[in-house]
Write a structure and sequence with these properties.
binds magnesium ion; Heat Shock Protein 90; 7 helices; two-stranded antiparallel ribbon; binds adenosine-5'-diphosphate; five-stranded mixed sheet; alpha+beta; 2 domains; Helix Hairpins
């Protein structure tokens, strides 16, 4: 990391940390100072905000840790058999509180085999992609999560789609690089560090997978789909690499 990169890194990270921390502090101070005057509903609402903002901080810190691990080469992946559905459910459970206007449509066939992956990293990948779909999706729109299994190529694909501003084809590669954000009115409005997709691509490839995207006109806006393909845990691989069940 050169000096300019380092300065960018510190400044984006500090900015990203400050917003949720300010909100956590503000709501806890208000609760402490006005506890007796607040009704149960308000207390619950404030606690929910504190919870959401803490989740945001956790995701951010996970991403930061991944970056330092890539750079020091100490990033270990623990490959095991991972069921997709429970991980998707966990991620949605957390994000749906934060993005209440979104409709989540989850389509995961029961016949999808487990993938051979690092569970925590797979969760981090999904969090980044589903969060982007929420952040850059139109208000009150649908976010779709769908899986397919390619029997011949022994890959499971997870597609995450949203309707929104879309991504110009000329930016398809750029968005996977460090700190890159596309300059449009929406990106300026929502917060971000430009690190999520860089980390997502790195993690996906580290687990023997691939990531790609398409963004095509759909009515007045664009349908953007990010697809990750991850290897399944087949018996041959299991035997060869001691993939534990
Ligand atoms: N689903 C999407 N629709 C439109 N633009 C997107 C989408 N996902 C990512 N982008 C664009 O790619 C950029 C990089 O994404 P990311 O690395 O996750 O950084 P961040 O979300 O912190 O800005 C975003 O700033 C945004 O401009
Ligand atoms: Mg992001």
């Amino acid at each position: 990391m050169d000096n300019q990169d380092y300065n960018d890194f510190i400044s984006t990270v500090s900015h990203e940390l400050r917003t949720p921390l300010t909100s956590i502090r503000g709501f806890s101070q208000t609760m402490l100072a006005s506890w007796d005057r607040l009704d149960d509903e308000s207390k619950k609402k404030f606690l929910k905000i504190i919870e959401e903002q803490s989740n945001r901080l956790i995701n951010l810190v996970e991403n930061m840790l991944s970056i330092t691990k890539f750079h020091s080469g100490s990033d270990k992946v623990i490959l095991k058999e991972v069921m997709i559905k429970p991980v998707v459910d966990t991620v949605i459970q957390i994000l749906k509180n934060q993005y209440r206007d979104k409709i989540f449509e989850i389509n995961i066939a029961g016949s999808i085999p487990p993938i051979y992956s690092d569970k925590d990293k797979f969760q981090q990948i999904l969090t980044n992609l589903i969060e982007n779909a929420c952040k850059y999706g139109d208000e009150n729109s649908t976010v779709k999560i769908q899986t397919d299994f390619c029997e011949d190529c022994k890959f499971v694909s997870v597609k995450i789609s949203n309707y929104g501003v879309g991504i110009d084809e000329k930016d398809y590669e750029k968005i996977f690089t460090k700190f890159s954000r596309i300059d449009n009115p929406l990106t300026r409005k929502v917060q971000g560090s430009g690190l999520g997709l860089y980390i997502t691509k790195n993690l996906t490839e580290k687990m023997g997978g691939k990531i790609s995207l398409t963004s095509t006109p759909a009515g007045e806006n664009y349908l953007t789909t990010f697809e990750i393909q991850l290897p399944v845990c087949d018996i041959e691989v299991q035997a060869r690499e001691k993939c534990s069940p």
